[in-house]
User: Fold Glutamate-1-semialdehyde 2,1-aminomutase from Aquimarina addita.
Amino acid sequence: MIYKRSSALFEEAQKVIPGGVNSPVRAFKAVGGDPIFVKEAKGAYLYDEDGNRLIDYINSWGPMILGHAFPPVVNAVIEKAKKGTSFGMPTEIETQIAALAISMVPNIDKIRFVNSGTEACMSAVRLARGFTKKDKIIKFVGCYHGHSDSFLIQAGSGAVTFGSPNSPGVTTGTAKDTLLAVYNDLAQVKQLVEANKGEIACIIIEPVAGNMGCIPPVAGFLEGLRTLCDAHGILLVFDEVMTGFRLAKGGVQELLGVAADIITFGKVIGGGLPVGAFAARSEIMDHLAPLGPVYQAGTLSGNPLAMAAGLAMLTELNENPEIFSSIQKKTKYLHEGMSRVLTENNVKHTINRLGSMISVHFSEDPVIDFESAAKGNNERFKKFFHGMLSRGIYIAPSAFETWFITDALTYKDLDITIEAVSAIAKNL
Ligand code: PMP
Assistant:
């Protein structure tokens, strides 16, 4: 495949945009080469500026769970746009999507919409601090909760890909309030809580991690966090920006039966428009302005186009819950096929999967936390990535990212992908 025009466009972009991209993971820094410029997308496919068709396993990093340009979402946005694009005043559709989201997700009475996952997590932590009147938070090494200051400490994903897990610009004052725990290590979290008794506002976690590849929680881990939080008056915050409305209607809380106190959303909830949200029981949410003292606001929050896209997406998922089992089956098929051909070719690997999240690690050891995720052979991943790209398959340009499966993929697409992995495996 030829990527000439993409490279030319990247040249131009770099003159006016830092690194040529508006979000770092879009650059191919970790794998080498120039990023692909997209012209349009439909269903499971991206069409780039060179006229190539690519099977897409990123799906805008998660939102396009039903494929690109999904007609009910596109039509809802077009119809809304004709009536004005922003008012900064209340609209009925905000209540409609709020009521629908609350009916789908356990343990929440109220929800507030923002414009990104970053904003949702940043606001959730402020709310947890305001509610508990404590300052410190616990986050897990390798978990990513957006790019606000408190979280850019041993953050996974893009931050690790670019070798800056701790970003310059985050003050030591801010960093000292973020305590770091090891994913899937309950004993270590307990020690941290004991050592900081009475000072911790919340534990924030990706209940199924997706930013160090896909790492599901080991049995009893989330339940243990719940018990620990209850014993110490700590709020448990589930960052369901990736997992919400993807792993089940009600997210990980429903899937694994563990209740959180505050839940954050992004990606699927906006149907591909810039939307995030955070939600909790009323007792907590009523601490937010204008009811309570915890300030949080947004000129474009609850934007009508974003709400129309989100409402159309959630309606589809609510009315057709078989979508969740359908994508789960497709992901399992892909997992089994890739694992088979990698094994046949003696390529050491571990594939992690939960629901429609999956990641391939070039290491034989179990991948259960950041340290084990980082053991993967990155040179092999680079070869794998470019091998896939040259065969028209687009996976995330970093070994620390999860693949997001869309229901628009056909079994034929999956077979083509498995065949490509088989061909690449011979030279890995
Ligand atoms: N939380 C998680 C778990 C995420 O994966 C992400 C983004 N990948 C965020 C928060 C931040 O969301 P956004 O990029 O929309 O700010």
